[in-house]
Amino acid sequence: MNPTIGWIRSLAESWGVPAALVPLVPFLILLVVLYAVIGLAAYGAKRKWPRADKTIAFWLFISPWLIGFAVFTVGPMVSSIYVSLTSWDLITPPRFVGFANYSEAFSDPRVGQALKVTLLYAVISVPLQTALAFLVALLMNVDLPGIRLFRTIWYLPSLVSGVAQMVLFLWVFNPQYGLANDVLAKVGVQGPGWFNDASWALPTVILMSLWTVGGAMVIYLAGLKDVPSNLYEAAALDGAGVTRLFWHITLPQLSPIILFNALTGIIGALQIFTQGFIATGGPKDSLLFFVYYLYDNAFQNFRMGYASALAWILFVIILALTAVTARGSSFAVYYESDQGGRRRPRVRKG
Amino acid sequence: MAVLVESPQRTAAEPRAVRRPDRPFWRRNLVLTIVLYVVLALGSLAFVYPFLWMVATSLRSLAGVGSAGASIWPREFLWANYSRAVTSFPFWRYALNSVLTTLIPIVGTVFSCSLAGFAFARLKVRFSGIVFAVVLATMLLPGEVTMVPQFMLFNNLGMIDTLYPLILPAFFGSPFYIFLFRQFFARMPAELADAAVVDGCGWFRMFLLVYFPLARPAVVAVSILLFMGYWNNFLGPAIYINSDQWKTLPLALAGFQSVNGTDTPLLMATSVLITLPCLVIFFFAQKQITNGITFTGGR
């Protein structure tokens, strides 16, 4: 703890501030001082440039984000670069080691395993999820009696998330007492070991991720309802069939949403953590997801420098994969502004 | 949410003959309808069965779990599992921590993100476009890069093993929700602002009295999304919380799983209890979830 902060805290304790609130006191004092300065600056600026009130208001309005950006993003990123070049266990002062952490990471077989597992998960689960969610949304968009009930049922599992989901599926896929193998046994198939089997653990997690496809489905469904119906009517007038309507109207109209979902899906998939944590890495490191390995190094073994280096490697990978996806799909994604209304009737957002 | 400007031939002069008869889908295509219902029913079974199995298992005895297998037929109703779940570990303490680390951050995020979103949508000044691009760019930044230094930051502030690292960052905005609010405010008519300016309203009062009340659908939708996110947050508590008194429900369940991994009914009862608030919110806000998401789309 910072000595000044410690001093303020002991002061707060002597004032009789409840113990649970003591850590908050130095933070609040910092914040009040900061906003006093900002407020004074804004007041001064307003007197000097009375016509710039819009500009002043803009910067005041985004000031919480701006402070957060500086304190929780830029500051930590810069210090993270430095920390990644040191060896540090939080207790003894950091020792500069140059690129030793990075070279260790590149020769660490567990990093290789973590990368393999995480990338495999992302590359398989994201396309599967995207395709399934889109198909389900198409199905749910058909105007059938009772379709709302089906939508609710298919969405329901996405409410069971994180730890609860993993705990549930550890039992669903329990080789002896689980739901899955009992169903398989009833149709005469000997089920695999699922999470207990090193070669099955990752496919099991991917299968599990498909269960919560409802969240993305809802977004596609909203997108489908947003497609202007006169596009369909016009095309149908010209004699287009269902297939052509799909390929030439539905898909292009939804392509920005698909890309958005795929990108956030990739970023999310590369950051998968909970499943690896609950399964403690899985048998033979088969669920050693990258962030779990990072967490393990930072907060179990207290190797802050090595963990920071791993974080930067992950960052570069995420950036590269996102860029490849965005680039690779640019030919397939249709944005309204590109075409200047040539392909689409006049539409005004209001 | 797009308002269509009717093209001329679509108004009165539209030939009536080409309009599809408004017969329901199932009467137009009966065979396909039956196929779709079969698919829907089978899919529903696959999606909802593990869920029902969780509930059924939570009501069984340990011996009952061993013999039941895939069956969800509730042969026994051991409600005692639930009372065990709330008494065998300090459940209410964890629940309180979960509520605190969910509701306060929701207020903080809605406050900071609606302010920034409004600024980006309605206060177009020099550099606001560039700043907005920076906001969007930070969406790509994985939290893991800043995880370790943020830990040190909170360590310096003396906030390790308290709930504050899970609560305070929310008051400083989050790019995704700033984006959502910006989209929402940008679609509101600009005349609103003009009217308020004529009335001599300051920007902050205008935001608070005119725009924010009108943004209720967005606030509700964002709050729901945030609730699901914060309630199930696991990485944050796993990093910052060590002592028992500050554990949140997911963290407690994870610890419980590793210690009592074989007491299935108890685990399932706890999982059901953790999921319950999300279910309740979903059933009350079903419409908002499906309508509010509209503006999350890329357009």
Tell me about this structure:
The complex is a heterodimer of chains A (350) and B (299). In chain A, 69% of the residues lie in helices and 2% in strands. Chain A is an all-alpha fold. Chain A folds into two domains: 3-101, no CATH class; 106-339, MetI-like (MetI-like fold), CATH 1.10.3720.10. In chain A, strand 1 and strand 2 form a beta hairpin. Chain A is globular and about 70 Å long. The model of chain A is unreliable at 338-350 (pLDDT under 50). Chain B has two domains: 24-78, no CATH class; 89-296, Orthogonal Bundle (MetI-like fold), CATH 1.10.3720.10. At the A-B interface, helix 1, helix 2, helix 3, helix 4 and helix 7 of A face strand 1, helix 2, helix 5, helix 6 and helix 7 of B.
Draw up the topology in text.
The complex is a heterodimer of chains A (350) and B (299).
Chain A: H1 3-14, H2 24-48, H3 53-61, H4 63-83, E1 86-87, E2 95-96, H5 100-107, H6 109-140, H7 147-155, H8 162-172, H9 179-186, H10 201-210, H11 214-226, H12 229-237, H13 242-270, H14 274-278, H15 290-300, H16 304-329, H17 336-339, E3 347-349
Antiparallel strand pairs in A: 1-2
Helix pairs in contact in A: 4-16, 5-16, 6-10, 6-11, 6-13, 11-13, 13-16, 15-16
Chain B: E1 2-4, H1 25-28, H2 30-58, H3 62-68, H4 80-87, H5 91-122, H6 128-138, H7 143-156, H8 164-167, H9 175-186, H10 191-198, H11 203-214, H12 216-231, H13 235-240, H14 249-259, H15 264-284, H16 286-292
Helix pairs in contact in B: 2-15, 4-15, 5-9, 5-12, 10-11, 12-16, 14-15
